[in-house]
Amino acid sequence: MLCIEPARLSDADDIHRLVTFWADRGDMLHRPIGEIFEAIRDFKVARLGGEVVGCGSLHIMGSDLAEVRSLAVSESVQGKGVGAGIVAACVDDARAFGLERVFALTYRPGFFEKVGFRLANVMEFPQKVWNECVRCPFFTNCKEVAVVMDLADGADLSVPGAG
Ligand SMILES: CC(C)(COP(=O)(O)OP(=O)(O)OC[C@H]1O[C@@H](n2cnc3c(N)ncnc32)[C@H](O)[C@@H]1OP(=O)(O)O)[C@@H](O)C(=O)NCCC(=O)NCCS
Question: What mean pLDDT do residues 40-65 have?
């Protein structure tokens, strides 16, 4: 049975493996294992039969804003609602913390639109651009697309079968 839950420290290697798999293919940015340990409390994992088949994290950026990061689903279980379930769990957390907006920078904007986000201008998130993007080697040639969900709108995610 699929289960989406907060990550444990013992999941860090599996998270790193998943993110590295897709980052090596140019689908997302790499995350060093040390960063994953530091951010482990931000992470959700999807488990299927005890195996980690998906991950994603919610990183709080300020009093009203958080970012979904490092969303990755194993090739073998794609298209079964795992990614949507992880995003829904992150959004649930964001609501519980009283955040107003959740954004992501992604090469897969179509997926995020499917799960309730809208396209955005990255400059809506200056704290991201001027604190982090400026240090990224791809800053001047960034192909990621910004997407955002406005939680104050009452936007909702319904994920049949996940959770
Ligand atoms: C993008 C990713 C997380 C999607 O995960 P997934 O578990 O396969 O997606 P889901 O099954 O939850 O899909 C939810 C919906 O989004 C749609 N969808 C999935 N990937 C999509 C894409 N790339 N473009 C448009 N729609 C997409 C699905 O068809 C589904 O729609 P439906 O509800 O009408 O059936 C996964 O493909 C992945 O890990 N990709 C590699 C890493 C990556 O690109 N991460 C993105 C963040 S940078």
Answer: 96
2-153 — its CATH code? 3.40.630.30
* Dist. CA 115 → ligand 1 center (Å): 9
Q: What does the alpha-carbon distance between residue 50 and residue 109 come to, in Å, rounded to a whole number?
A: 30
- Residue nearest atom 34 of ligand 1, based on CA coordinates: 114
β-strands 2-6, 43-48 pairing: antiparallel
Q: What is the pLDDT of residues 91-122, one digit of tens each?
A: 999 999 999 999 999 999 999 999 999 999 99
Atom of ligand 1 nearest to the CA of 79: 11
Choose which residue among 108, 112, 119, 145 to substitute to test ligand 1 binding: the one with the highest number of ligand atoms within 8 A of its C-beta.
108
pTM above 0.70, yes or no: yes
Each domain of the chain, given as residue ranges in start order, spans 2-153
